[in-house]
């Protein structure tokens, strides 16, 4: 499994639409709207490194309203629990 984290800058007026269209792409496991200099972060999980070339430039970058992307490929996951906690902002975890 290859994981890539894609930072997406989008047309502000189209962020919800862009997020939904990106989330519908095969290989995209999650899309988060975020604060800061980015608009969205997409988690891409594919079987092979070469599949990233299909998912990101051929699909994500072609969604209307996507202005730019920056891709980071993950080398290793150190803790599934920590990863889930980091991306579950606002979830009720009983604390």
TrEMBL record:
Gene3D superfamilies per UniProt: 3.30.70.920
Give residue ranges for domain Transcription regulator AsnC/Lrp ligand binding: 7-77
Record-given protein name:
Lrp/AsnC family transcriptional regulator
Q: Which organism is it from?
A: Kribbella deserti
